[in-house]
Amino acid sequence: MNKTQKILTAFLVLAIVFAGVVISRVWLFKPQSTVKLVKIPAGEYDTEVWGKNYPLQYAGYQKSMEMTPSPTGYGGGMKVQKAEMQPELYINFKGNPFSKDYTEDRGHPYAMEDLRESKRIGPAAKAACITCKTPYIEQLYKEQGWGYANQPLLETMEKAKHPINCANCHDPETMGLRVINPAFIEGMQRRGIDITKASREEMRSYVCAQCHSEYYFEPGTFKVIFPWDKGLTPQQMYEYYATKPNGFAQDFVHPDSGVPVLKAQHPDYEEWQNGVHGQFGVSCADCHMPYMRKSGQKYSSHWITSPLKNIEESCSPCHTQGKELLFSQVKAFQDNVWQLQHTAGQQIAKAHTAIQKASTASAVSQTELANARELLRRAQWYWDYVAASNSMGFHNPVQELNTLGQAIDLSHQSVNAANRAAGTNTL
Fold first, then answer.
1. Residue 15 located in a structural domain
2. HEC per residue, the chain
3. Pairing between strand 252-253 and 224-225?
4. For the chain, what is the domain count?
5. Residue 31: per-residue pLDDT
6. What is this structure's pTM?
């Protein structure tokens, strides 16, 4: 063996040894690709206990405490009064606590704090209000069934210390996704859907839908009911409410116009499931809790926020248009919805004033006045269905622009009916 051959042989031996070391280190010290399962005691609602075993998810949950504006300027996690951008809220919700306090929603960790500090809550408030604010609802329902809903809210809040967290959505033993809100379970059953047979991908939306949905309180019992018996569109839910289900007629009566108003409550699930993402099977978690990687470990982000803050992880797995184009498209949708939403809200406020004025006329037509009130009731519901949602229409821009267009038209019809009732119609 000559000198050159010896050098090549030595180099080959060193290369083999080096490769062996690298392969052994990768094999022996390979980082986890998935999250290791750790069982949590049943009834444990303290996020810190969960966080000790699931630190990456807990870090994301903690990040939800950041109070930052939305990238597009709509929504966000800042605790500001919505009436600052929409002064018409003072008129449209006159006679209802929402006219006194209607702030933007903050992250899940603030759920109990914001409820406790809300000016809409008083000594007479019922524990039904806690249904979507804490995992303690699981224990309350086990102990009392729907009886808990009619208990004093402030007293119940003394027992329920923890806000929305891990236990709302995860089985503590298996970490599988679960739903603990009985109102959602019953609402789905009435639609013929057994959520115990749901796929994992369906559950990635159901865990959100159990709270991000429209509801009302059954008169007398304060049981929480989702109004889905006729469907989930704003028109179908209005038809349901028109039947006065379980004796429920309205959330409040407007003191000026006498309109029996329906107050919408964040119908995000209903909005999404009729939209393009919902129809194509893209779950809530796909966008708001995208998969992330850290040190080789794959996990679902628990920083539940606008997908625009994580475009690469939230949007790019499906969309290849680039961040700038995606952002501008979302912004355009929201700008257009906001413009019509603001216009609709202003026209509805004018209709309340027109009906109030007509009702004082000496020879008012009660038939036309009743017609004006019904038109305005429907108009306000359509407007509020969009205004109370959190996506500023992005979940379903086609439906929401149409809904707001109807709200504007109905409010104009209401003003005309009020003028006819007072004998002052100029058309």
1. no
2. CCHHHHHHHHHHHHHHHHHHHHHHHHHHCCCCCCCCCCCCCCCCCCHHHHHHHCHHHHHHHHHCCCCCCCCCCCCCCCCCEHHHCCCCHHHHCCCCHHHCCCECCCCHHHHHHHHHHCCCCCCCCEHHHHCCCCCCHHHHHHHHHHHHHHCEHHHHHCCCCCCCCHHHHECCCCCCECCCCHHHHHHHHHCCCCHHHCCHHHHHHHHHHCCCCCCEECCCCCCEECCCCCCCCHHHHHHHHHCCHHHCCCCEECCCCCCEECCCCCCHHHHHHCCHHHHCCCCHHHHHCCEEEECCEEEECCCCCCHHHHHHHHCCCCCCCCHHHHHHHHHHHHHHHHHHHHHHHHHHHHHHHHHHHHHCCCCCCHHHHHHHHHHHHHHHHHHHHHHCCCCCCCCCHHHHHHHHHHHHHHHHHHHHHHHHHHCCCCC
3. unpaired
4. 1
5. 42
6. 0.90
CA 189 from chain centre, in angstroms, equals 21
Looking at this protein, which amino acid is placed at residue 292? Answer: M
Which structural domain, as residue segments, surrounds residue 104?
Answer: 47-320
Residue at 419 is within a domain: no
pLDDT at 25 over 60: no
Q: In CATH, what number is assigned to the domain containing residue 122? A: 1.10.1130.10
Please tell me the predicted confidence (pLDDT) of residue 36.
79
The answer to whether position 387 is within a domain reads no
What would you report as the CA-atom Rg of the chain, rounded to the nearest whole angstrom?
27
Residue 367 lies in a domain: no
Flag whether pLDDT at 21 surpasses 70. Answer: no
Please report which confidence band the pLDDT of residue 295 belongs to, taking 50, 70 and 90 as the band edges. confident
What CA–CA distances, in Å, run from 70 to 205, 274, 334? 22, 24, 12
DSSP class of residue 252 equals: E
